[in-house]
């Protein structure tokens, strides 16, 4: 055997990047986008020169008399937009893979997390009152499961008598409505997200074709079976969505690179097969070049999937944060040095542009931002260190802390009321605690360094913070498997570790980068996520440079269940399943009444909740394949 030649992407310290890529393909989550670098010095110099030439025309890019709304400019014509993008928009950007004024509402002041209205768990979300789509949903009586690319399976949740009652072929319904439409490539059709609100099941799907297209099917459910189905669609690739009070807010995006534009029609977005008028299209002047076109629409799911409103935003690569009353685009500039913040208010289906501002650096994910009492708090990473910014209701910076942990990067963040917590990482994990009670003078009150890092933070109550992430070697920073940590934050000047659960090398969980995959019921104190395993195998390198190494996932997974009570957490159950159908990425745990359900795209298993939360090994009551 020759010398082993290990590809860099498959080294232990890099293997999670490969795994994370698979997770992102399964569930299009919004992560930080990187701007492609033009390596040629001469090309870069030309770009800078052109940027200088056109800078003075910023306010007249897309028409001679644009209206400005607090830094947001409204275009006057699509022809002007097309001309600009075709002739001047020459920078090369990577296409995303997605993936404020004071509301002053009491809803914004509640702890994040889910507390169900009934005795069942709901999808783990970021903002109280704003639902997020997922591949498994329940209304406390039925469970709705995305099974494969085209079908939603409906289970009647009845403990040991749980059974499949129907499956709904969404692709067939879409193809029937849009028969012979050249915008549909049925082989690329895929269900992305689902919602359940009252008796309406909302299914979001997409496909490729002449243009990317996203479909919203609203199914009126009756005892687990489909009744009337209303379908609408919106141009672009799926980016994200939210639901509030029976209104779906859908965001799609299209690439506006000059080489993809053939006519003015290519810059005119549609929602519900209607062109969005130019007066509903906005941009800001942070960019010298624009490469993305975002379409936002609101769909009334209680009114035959009617499009209530639609707006477009022309800009760059974004991270999305949605508070109870605002949609925020956190948008990188062309050089990754500044974040342009654009806010739109939304209520009862109406989407209105509000204002724009900026901070410096790049954000990690949507949890890097938080709106509270009329202020927006944002944590960013820069070459000079990490920063925390506080912006007022005009999106003006009123307070900041800069230069934090130089050489490290933000891995996670979470805010509760006047306190903020964020993790930076290089070889160890400093968890920072920040007092935000005076927005103009935020201050770090403590910093705790431990090995590894938390990639997701979740408040169990006011005094206890749960972190899910990785253990690591303190000297090399190499990741050494999944770790769960309970932090005591009751003393606002002294963070302490209460408990650690370490699962060893070769473990991974999609919960680390997809908070929807976590079962989190704060009212019942039950939490869970799916853990799976990989190991390294060798292959013969026929090129003569020795053998290679690749990661092979074990055909099994474990679902870890935790109970939290009186400031203490313990692992109460580990349900192991043989993964013959490769479903580990789609596993969700949930409870309804006295029963616990472990659900994936191919199977469902039912247990007594008392058994799962008790001392003895839980006994499977029934299993269902579909």
Notable characteristics:
globular; seven-stranded mixed beta sheet; five-stranded antiparallel beta sheet; 42 strands; 626 residues; mainly beta
Query: What Rg, in angstroms, do the CA atoms define?
Result: 24 Å
Measured as a percent range, the helix fraction is under 10%
Overall mean pLDDT score?
Answer: 84
Low-confidence stretches: 1-59, 90-117
Question: Which class do the helix and strand fractions yield?
Answer: mainly beta
- Going across the major beta sheet, what is the strand order? 1-2-15-17-16-12-11
Strand content: over 45%
Largest sheet: number of strands, sense, barrel closure: 7 strands, mixed
Q: Care to count the β-strands?
A: 42
Number of helices: 6
Distance between the termini: 45 Å
- How would you describe the shape? globular
Structural notes for this entry:
It is a single chain. This protein is mainly beta. Helices cover 9% and strands 50% of the residues. The strands form ten sheets. A seven-stranded mixed sheet has the order 1-2-15-17-16-12-11, with no helix packed on it. Strands 34, 35, 36, 37 and 38 form a five-stranded antiparallel sheet that branches. A hairpin with a 2-residue loop joins strand 1 (67-69) and strand 2. The longest helix is centred in the N-terminal third of the chain and has 15 residues, at 41-55.
């Amino acid at each position: 055997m020759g010398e082993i030649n290990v590809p860099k992407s498959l080294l232990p310290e890099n293997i999670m990047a490969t795994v994370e890529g698979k997770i992102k393909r399964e569930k299009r989550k919004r992560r930080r986008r990187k701007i492609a670098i033009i390596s040629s010095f001469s090309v870069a110099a030309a770009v800078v020169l052109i940027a200088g030439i056109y800078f003075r025309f910023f306010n007249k890019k897309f028409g001679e008399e644009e209206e400005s709304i607090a830094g947001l400019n409204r275009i006057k014509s699509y022809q002007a937009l097309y001309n600009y993008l075709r002739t001047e928009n020459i920078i090369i950007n990577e296409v995303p893979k997605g993936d404020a004024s004071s509301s002053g509402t009491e809803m914004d002041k509640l702890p994040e997390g889910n507390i169900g209205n009934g005795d069942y768990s709901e999808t783990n979300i970021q903002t109280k009152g704003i639902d997020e789509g997922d591949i498994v949903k329940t209304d406390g009586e039925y469970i709705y499961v995305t099974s494969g690319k085209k079908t939603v399976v409906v289970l009647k949740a009845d403990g040991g008598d749980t059974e499949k009652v129907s499956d709904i072929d969404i692709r067939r319904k879409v193809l029937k409505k849009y028969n012979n439409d050249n915008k549909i490539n049925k082989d690329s059709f895929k269900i992305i997200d689902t919602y359940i609100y009252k008796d309406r099941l909302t299914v979001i799907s997409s496909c490729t074709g002449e243009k990317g297209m996203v479909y919203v099917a609203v199914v009126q459910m009756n005892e687990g079976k489909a009744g009337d189905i209303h379908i609408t669609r919106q141009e672009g690739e799926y980016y994200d969505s939210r639901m509030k009070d029976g209104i779906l807010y859908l965001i799609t995006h299209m690439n506006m690179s000059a080489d993809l534009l053939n006519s003015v029609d290519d810059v005119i977005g549609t929602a519900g097969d209607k062109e969005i008028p130019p007066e509903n299209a906005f941009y800001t002047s942070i960019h010298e070049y624009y490469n993305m076109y975002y379409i936002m629409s609101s769909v009334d799911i209680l009114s035959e999937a009617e499009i209530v409103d639609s707006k477009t935003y022309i800009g760059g690569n974004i991270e999305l944060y949605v508070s109870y009353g605002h949609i925020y685009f956190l948008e990188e500039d062309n050089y990754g040095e500044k974040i342009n913040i654009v806010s739109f208010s939304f209520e009862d289906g109406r989407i209105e542009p509000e204002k724009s501002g900026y901070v410096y650096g790049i954000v990690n994910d949507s949890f890097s931002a938080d709106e509270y009492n009329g202020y927006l708090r944002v944590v960013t990473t820069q070459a000079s260190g990490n920063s925390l910014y506080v912006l007022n209701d005009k999106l003006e910076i009123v307070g900041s802390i800069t230069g934090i942990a130089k050489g490290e990067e933000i891995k996670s963040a979470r805010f509760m009321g006047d306190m903020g917590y964020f993790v930076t990482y290089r070889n160890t994990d400093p968890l920072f605690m920040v007092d935000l009670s005076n927005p103009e003078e935020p201050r770090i009150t403590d910093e705790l360094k431990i090995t590894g890092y938390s990639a997701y933070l979740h408040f169990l109550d006011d005094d206890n913070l749960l972190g899910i992430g990785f253990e690591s070697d303190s000297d090399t920073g190499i990741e050494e498997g999944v770790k769960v940590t309970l932090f005591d934050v009751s003393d606002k000047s002294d963070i302490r570790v209460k408990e650690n659960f370490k699962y060893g090398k070769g473990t991974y969980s999609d919960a680390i980068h997809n908070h929807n995959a976590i079962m989190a019921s704060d009212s019942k104190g039950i939490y869970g996520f799916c853990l799976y395993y990989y190991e390294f195998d060798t292959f013969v390198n026929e090129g003569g440079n020795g053998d290679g190494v690749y990661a092979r996932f074990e055909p099994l997974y474990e679902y870890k269940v935790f109970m939290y009570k009186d400031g203490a957490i313990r692992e109460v159950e580990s349900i192991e399943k043989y993964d013959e159908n490769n479903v580990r990425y789609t596993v969700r745990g949930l409870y309804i009444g006295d029963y616990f359900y472990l659900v994936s795209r191919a199977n469902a298993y039912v247990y007594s909740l008392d058994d799962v939360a008790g001392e003895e090994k839980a006994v499977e009551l029934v299993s269902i394949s579909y």
